[in-house]
Amino acid sequence: MSMKRTNVYADPEDLAIIKEAAKRRGISEAEIIRQGIHLAAMANRVWDEPLFSRTFEGAGRTPSKREVRDVVADAVLRESGTGSAA
User: Fold this and answer.
1) CA-to-CA distance for 64 and 66, rounded, in angstroms?
2) Nearest to 18 by CA among 9, 31, 3
3) Angle 53-51-62 from CA coordinates, rounded to 5°
């Protein structure tokens, strides 16, 4: 991946924390800053399509904890080949 150099102003206390973390983790301060820039970029990204663009058939309500547990248990039993949980 190619990178581009840029200059930013940072709070001295933040830089001290980054310096300490870099030393503790055994990586460069620049790597920590790059990770932070990536996290900020992803948090502010505008996606081309919504995360949940599909609709699914269902009861039209949020299932109870028991219903979810039963469906998961049934799926596990089907996957393991031991039959139905009921």
Assistant:
1) 5
2) 31
3) 75
Identity of residue 72? V
Residues 6+ apart with CB under 8 A from 77: 83, 84, 85
Q: What is the pTM of this model?
A: 0.54
Q: Residue 81 and residue 70: Cα distance in Å, rounded?
A: 16
- H or E element: which one contains 83? none
What does 3-65 look like in DSSP terms, one character per residue? ---------HHHHHHHHHHHHHHTS-HHHHHHHHHHHHHHHT---SS-S------S-SSPPPH
Least confident of 7-11, 29-33, 43-47, 65-69: 43-47
